């Protein structure tokens, strides 16, 4: 049976179209792959050549730096007058220094006033020449930079073209006694670059200062006033090394260029190739394929493209699976760690609450015992004073321990304020130096234009002190501690790896030491309370725990980077504050005496604590009514036992808590003042680490003086009295 004519026509048309489209498609695909391969080879070749150029430049500049250092050793302790007297001898010594160094053109010592003193190639020097207007001289005189690389200049002693590597002439570190300049001829570099690029007209090579000024440019002479803006733009976008394509502002040629920043020197090595030569290479490759390999490669290219596509698809699928597995593992580990730390936090917070009640009774009764010593004999008083002082110090250490536990468990009430971290770190520097000792060098680096943060300054200073002391202990033989500030932006990718952090702007404080570092096992447990690598009696294991709790409670983030033998860096990230920073002026206040007739309702479920507080207040001439819980307190109000001026209540009570009790009392007795006591807040009067608005609080354990001043402060708010004593910060602003 014959195929209908229309069907045959359609089939032929399809075959015709296929015979045209398929070869064109194959040719286009092969051309694309050939272009990618040509481009990659060109880039690899440029990277290889620029690595050679960089190595050569480093050796030359290192030699210049070494020569300059040796000359400083030779003349650094000599005055200008002594150098002038010994010019002939020093000239010979300088000439000997550079005799076998073809890369060094000359060396020159310039006095403090800018006049030449001795040269390696010119004797005697013309002392009437003034070099104080040279850029390198001015830069080294005004700034204590280690060295300075200048643009191409014509030497005033020998009228030759040089670029200079200069350093300070120093009789002691940090002093300025003149400048030591070691010069190299651009021709030395140009000769090397000619060999590097095989004298090909398609290539250029150069050495460019970090501000874009050409030092050496092959094959054309460098122009000192020219700035390679294309290189600067690429460095700003691609970091210290990379590849970019741009049109030269000197000769207008479109080039592909590779560059690399020289380590420790303000210069780039760069090698470029004209774009036209790369295109010509690709065209030659395509012509070869067309002439000799089209019949044999059409099918192969198609199969290769198919295999390549399949391989990439499978690799992408595998990569997605691996990434999903990794993210799941990270999230699960973060959840496990968070649950573990939260459980420990609940435990430590509860322990701290009970321990603070005990310490309130202990410290209060020690104070009472100290006042009873007045009737004793003088010798007995001295012995008992020493005994009680030791007991008080032990109780105070216990109070500090509970404050650290509360800090880790994130139950401490903070008093955050807008802060300039540069100012805070600067004010803490001298104290840190005394704490670190003479064997540890302290350096602080404050970022310009640093954003403001909102944090509790007392707790932040305590956190930095903890980190500094840890760093000191990690450097038993001395070392260097660096505290740096910076503005950072935490991106979503970073926050996906650290689920507790939100993306956005943060201010970073980095504390870096050169100590012994930490192993992976120690890093995993570094923030756990009571975990320490120190021997028994030398640490509680609560320092990093306290820092961790404070940072988390402040809405921040903390990480540790450490390697054994390489030191440790602790980075604290605090959220940026967008509000305007205002300076607060402290006001001096005095404590007025108690007003007769004032009545205080004391509500405390711990009987020993309640009895101690009641006795203390009666000793201060207050009328006291006691209650063990909220029900008893409300019953006292119902009985109408006279006017009550102040409700002094614990926050954590059985049944109705202290905050709800205060609301009930204020509703029933208008005008009554409320002062909360707490050893553990549990969010009753604290939200997100901050006291609720218009809430007055005193932290357990407290002393008699602290409680008296705090009560007076609260009561005087009703009568408009503002000249009153401030309560010690450790008892009403934070737990640490």
Describe the model.
Among the domains are: 421-577, Heat Shock Protein 90 (2-Layer Sandwich); 599-732, 3-Layer(aba) Sandwich (Rossmann fold), CATH 3.40.50. 48% of the residues lie in helices and 19% in strands. The chain has 18 helices and 25 strands. Strand 23 (686-687) and strand 24 form a beta hairpin.
Structural class: alpha+beta
| Helical residue percent band | 40-55%
Unreliable sequence segments: 1-5, 407-411, 585-593, 681-685, 720-736
Overall CATH architecture of the domain at 421-577:
2-Layer Sandwich
Our Rg estimate from Cα atoms comes to 38 Å
Total helical elements = 18
Q: What is the makeup of the main sheet?
A: 7 strands, mixed
Please tally the β strands and state the result. 25
Q: How far apart lie the N and C ends?
A: 99 Å
| Strand proportion | 15-25%
**What do the pLDDT scores average to?**
77
Broad shape: elongated
| CATH third-level topology of the domain at 421-577 | Heat Shock Protein 90
CATH superfamily of the domain at 421-577: Histidine kinase-like ATPase, C-terminal domain
**CATH top-level class of the domain at 421-577:** Alpha Beta
Write the layout of secondary structure elements.
Blueprint: H1 5-75, H2 80-85, H3 87-97, E1 106-110, E2 116-119, H4 135-142, E3 148-149, E4 153-154, E5 161-168, E6 179-184, H5 186-196, E7 203-209, E8 214-218, H6 229-238, E9 241-247, E10 254-261, E11 267-274, H7 275-371, H8 378-409, E12 417-419, H9 421-436, E13 440-445, E14 452-455, H10 457-473, E15 479-490, H11 492-497, E16 504-513, H12 520-525, H13 543-553, E17 557-563, E18 567-577, E19 599-603, H14 607-619, E20 623-627, H15 630-639, E21 646-650, H16 658-668, E22 673-678, E23 686-687, E24 690-691, E25 697-699, H17 704-719, H18 729-732
Parallel strand pairs: 13-15, 19-20, 19-21, 21-22, 22-25
Antiparallel strand pairs: 1-2, 1-6, 3-5, 4-5, 5-6, 7-8, 7-11, 9-10, 10-11, 12-14, 14-18, 15-16, 16-18, 17-18, 23-24
Helix pairs in contact: 1-7, 7-8, 7-14, 8-13, 9-10, 10-13, 15-16
């Amino acid at each position: 049976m014959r195929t209908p004519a229309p069907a045959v026509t359609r089939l032929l048309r399809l075959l015709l179209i296929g015979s045209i489209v398929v070869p064109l498609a194959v040719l286009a695909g092969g051309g694309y792959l050939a272009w990618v391969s040509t481009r990659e080879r060109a880039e690899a070749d440029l990277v290889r050549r620029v690595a050679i150029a960089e190595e050569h430049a480093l050796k030359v500049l290192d030699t210049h730096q070494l020569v300059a250092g040796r000359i400083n050793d030779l003349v650094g302790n000599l005055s200008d007058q002594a150098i002038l007297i010994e010019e002939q001898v020093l000239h010979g010594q300088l000439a000997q220094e550079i005799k076998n160094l073809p890369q060094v053109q000359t060396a020159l010592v310039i006095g403090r006033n800018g006049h030449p003193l001795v040269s390696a190639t010119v004797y005697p020097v013309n002392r009437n020449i003034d070099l104080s207007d040279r850029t390198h001289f001015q830069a080294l005189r005004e700034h204590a930079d280690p060295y300075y690389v200048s643009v191409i200049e014509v030497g005033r002693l020998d009228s030759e073209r040089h670029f200079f590597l200069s350093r300070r002439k120093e009789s002691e570190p940090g002093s300025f006694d003149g400048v030591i300049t070691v010069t190299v001829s651009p021709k030395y570099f140009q000769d090397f670059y000619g060999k590097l690029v095989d004298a090909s007209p398609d290539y250029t090579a150069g050495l460019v200062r970090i501000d874009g000024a050409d030092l050496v440019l092959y094959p054309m002479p460098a122009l000192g006033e020219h700035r390679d803006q294309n290189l600067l733009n690429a460095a700003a976008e691609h970091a210290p090394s990379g590849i970019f394509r741009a049109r030269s502002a000197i000769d207008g040629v479109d080039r592909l260029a590779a560059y690399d920043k020289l380590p420790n020197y303000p210069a780039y090595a760069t090698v470029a190739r004209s774009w036209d030569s790369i295109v010509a290479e690709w065209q030659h490759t395509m012509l070869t394929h067309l002439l000799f390999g089209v019949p044999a490669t059409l099918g192969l290219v198609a199969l290769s493209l198919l295999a390549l596509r399949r391989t990439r698809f499978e690799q992408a699928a595998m990569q997605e699976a691996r990434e999903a597995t990794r993210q799941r593992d990270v999230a699960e580990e973060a959840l496990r760690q968070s649950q573990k730390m939260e459980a420990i936090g609940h435990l430590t917070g509860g322990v701290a609450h009970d321990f603070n009640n005990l310490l309130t009774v202990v410290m209060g009764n020690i104070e009472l015992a100290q006042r009873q010593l007045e009737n004793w004999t003088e010798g007995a008083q001295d012995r008992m004073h020493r005994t009680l002082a030791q007991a008080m110090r032990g109780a105070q250490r216990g109070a500090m321990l509970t404050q650290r536990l509360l800090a880790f468990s994130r139950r401490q009430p903070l008093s955050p304020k807008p802060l300039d971290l540069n100012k805070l770190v600067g004010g803490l520097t001298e104290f840190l130096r005394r704490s670190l000792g003479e064997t540890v060098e302290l350096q602080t680096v404050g970022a310009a234009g640093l954003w403001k943060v909102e944090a509790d300054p007392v707790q932040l200073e305590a956190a930095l002190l903890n980190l500094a002391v840890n760093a000191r202990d990690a450097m038993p033989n001395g070392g260097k501690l660096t505290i740096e500030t910076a503005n950072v932006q935490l991106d979503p990718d970073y926050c996906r790896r650290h689920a507790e952090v939100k993306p956005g702007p943060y201010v970073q404080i980095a504390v870096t030491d050169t100590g012994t570092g930490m192993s992976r096992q120690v890093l995993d447990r570094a923030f756990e309370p009571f975990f320490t690598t120190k021997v028994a009696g030398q640490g509680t294991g609560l320092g990093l725990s306290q820092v961790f709790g404070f940072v988390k409670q402040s809405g921040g983030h903390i990480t540790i980077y450490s390697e054994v033998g390489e030191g440790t860096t602790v980075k604290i990230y605090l959220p940026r504050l967008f509000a305007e920073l205002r300076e607060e002026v402290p006001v001096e206040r005095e404590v007025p005496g108690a007003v007769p007739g004032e009545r205080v309702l004391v509500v405390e479920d711990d009987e020993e604590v309640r009895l101690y507080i009641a006795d203390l207040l009666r000793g201060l001439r207050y009328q006291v009514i006691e209650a063990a819980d909220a029900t008893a307190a409300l019953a006292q109000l119902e009985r109408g036992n006279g006017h009550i001026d102040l409700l002094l209540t614990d926050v954590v009570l059985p049944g109705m808590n202290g905050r709800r009790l205060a609301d009930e009392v204020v509703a029933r007795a208008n005008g009554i003042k409320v002062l909360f006591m707490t050893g553990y807040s549990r969010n009753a009067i604290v939200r997100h680490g901050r006291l609720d608005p218009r809430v007055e609080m005193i932290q357990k354990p407290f002393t008699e003086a602290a409680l008296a001043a705090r009560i007076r402060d609260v009561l005087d708010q009703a009568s408009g009295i503002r000249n009153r004593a401030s309560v010690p910060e450790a008892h009403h602003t934070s737990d640490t």
